[in-house]
Amino acid sequence: MDKTLSLPRAISTYLSDGDTVALEGFGHIVPVAAAHEIIRQGFTDLILARMSCDVIVDQLLGANCLRGLISSFVANSSAGSLHELRRRVEKSDPEPLWFDEYSHGGMVARYQAGASKLPFQPIASYRGSDLAAKNPRITSVPDPYGGPDIYVVPALNPDLTIIHAQRADKHGNVQAWGMLGVQTEAAFAGRRLIVTVEEIVDEDIVRSDPNRTIVPAHVVDAVVAVPRGSHPHSVQGYYDRDDDFSRQWSALARDPEAVQKWLETNVRGTSDHDEFLASLGSDHFETSTIHDAYSTPVNYGGRA
Amino acid sequence: MSLRTHEEADTGVQAVGAAAREASTGVQASHDEVTSSELLTVHSARALAGRNVVFAGHGLPTLAVSLAQHTVAPDVEIVYESGVTGARPPAMPRSISDSILVPGAASVMPMTHLFNYVLQGQRIDVGFLGAAQVDKYGNLNSTLIGDDWEHPDSRLPGSGGAIEAMAGAAEIFLVMRRHTPRTFVENLDFVTSPGPRKAAEAEVGSMPAGAGVTHVITDLGIMTRSARDEELTLTAVHPGIDPSEVVRQTGWNLLVSPDLETTQPPSAAELSLLREQLDPTRIYLR
């Protein structure tokens, strides 16, 4: 079954106002283009689930798409602060943000429970942490096997999960390599799943290396080809990170008006991701080229 | 100023701070000037002697582990929060999720493996953490400054994996670039990552597997603790630093070891490794 869709069509088909949407990728294979398309289509009242925040969180906040955030790290990766986010959290400016805060281990456990369709997941951390005291959803249950009460976190089942990856076939068998973050768990946890990829490849390529598939087609609702869809984050084997972009965002976003202007010009003022990339300048990507490093092929041979 | 458990110390204020430190270490290492980053890196590396599996972030901890591999701990390996182990990057990574870590690495684990099997699974000897605030028992705050979680004066990045590193690693090394009363505090604004003493006060949950913070390495000296109820004790000062200065820069009444030592300045060999081989473009050695 061919699940390829355009990005606008995939987003408009599978996202609704008020949804909880997970955008995952741990500094690598991040669905940035999809976040921009959410902004272009003007969705509101979303709750964003994202373990480790970055520029897209500030951009979605600035575009007034979000009423809530589920996260465990709210800086701009290693590039500085997210000032839209800080204004919302520190000063309720322009309005309060519902913030459901965990640790990375807690977020991983939430996605695991969600993917497994369990109500919650036990976790060995949190004892003595103020996070457990402040967040009522981090709670404890008796250990039926005689141990001390153990902390649990609730399942996270986003209405829509969006992940990025290197490649997929048209059916939606998704292959990724390099740092995999929590992509697989977030994908299985989602009630609906959009996967953006650098390229749609022939089914034979996928089938030549089935262990490389991190999400099988039966989990995927739509697969979308979006080259450079993870910029400013890297995609192993395709392009490097754009640290200048991330740092410049942290500087720009100190000024709320500059955020609005940037969104108007670069996101709402562009029709799609290609136009967005072009808006960065024709020579923008000359510095982010990478060298090739191929793995040695493995032998999948079995009984004839 | 009196020093706790320390017999009448010489509290006459000597030349303290960066000037004295640089003068002293610079001469010892016969290099022009030892930066604070170099000092912290060298002492972090030395503390890794005898350890094998280290959970570390980018920057100074990465550099410290690289130096340790070349000096006191040839078999030590970093496990990055991004799931990479046994990385052999051709240049210093710019963050824990820098894809430069991947080519040539020994493994890249998904985060479920990293958090469930490696951290929670108690496979880590030493976790390197930083924090905005630390208290006398090595509890850490990386969440906020202020008194209200919902409306903080200053919102900081949050836990990331720090809570799990503290809970699962055998011990934690804390690197603090600036030792001041604002960072070394009597009461944390928020307990993000509790050590075992704080955890023991709580009524529910699993106890941390390890000892919590055992080493704190700062620009002024080194503090250590080894037992659950033990406070951090100043066990070494850097050359040219008076212990009374460290006490003054600490927001609680800091214990000073009766066997207080002066740290050995970075050696010429250590500095040459750092400057010429490990971080020649000075990404982290500023």
Question: How would you explain this protein's 3D organization?
Answer:
The complex is a heterodimer of chains A (304) and B (286). Chain A is of the alpha/beta class. Chain A has 2 domains: 7-101 and 157-281, Glutaconate Coenzyme A-transferase, CATH 3.40.1080.10; 104-154, no CATH class. Chain A is 31% helix and 19% strand. Chain A contains 11 helices and 12 strands. In chain A, β3, α4 and β4 (98-101) form a beta-alpha-beta unit. In chain A, α5 crosses α7. Chain B has one domain (18-278): 3-Layer(aba) Sandwich (Glutaconate Coenzyme A-transferase), CATH 3.40.1080. In chain B, a hairpin with a 2-residue loop joins β11 and β12. Chain B has helices at 18-29, 36-46, 60-70, 111-119, 162-168, 196-201, 243-248, 268-278; strands at 53-55, 77-79, 84-85, 107-108, 126-129, 133-134, 140-141, 144-145, 154-155, 171-176, 213-218, 221-224, 233-237, 255-262. Chain B has 286 residues and is α/β, with parallel strands linked by helices. Chains A and B meet through α4, α5, α6 and α7 of A and α4, β9, α5 and α6 of B.
Question: What layout of secondary structure does this protein have?
Answer:
The complex is a heterodimer of chains A (304) and B (286).
Chain A (H helix, E strand, L loop, with lengths): L6 H8 L5 E5 L7 H9 L5 E4 L5 H8 L3 E6 L11 H9 L6 E4 L2 H13 L3 E4 L6 H5 L4 E3 L8 E5 L5 E9 L5 E2 L7 H7 L2 E9 L2 H5 L5 E3 L6 E4 L17 H10 L3 H13 L4 H7 L25
Parallel strand pairs in A: 1-2, 1-8, 2-3, 3-4, 8-10, 10-12
Antiparallel strand pairs in A: 5-7, 6-7, 8-9, 9-11
Chain B lengths: L17 H12 L6 H11 L6 E3 L4 H11 L6 E3 L4 E2 L21 E2 L2 H9 L6 E4 L3 E2 L5 E2 L2 E2 L8 E2 L6 H7 L2 E6 L19 H6 L11 E6 L2 E4 L8 E5 L5 H6 L6 E8 L5 H11 L8
Parallel strand pairs in B: 1-2, 1-5, 5-10, 10-11, 13-14
Antiparallel strand pairs in B: 3-4, 6-7, 8-9, 11-12, 12-13
Helix pairs in contact in B: 2-3, 3-8
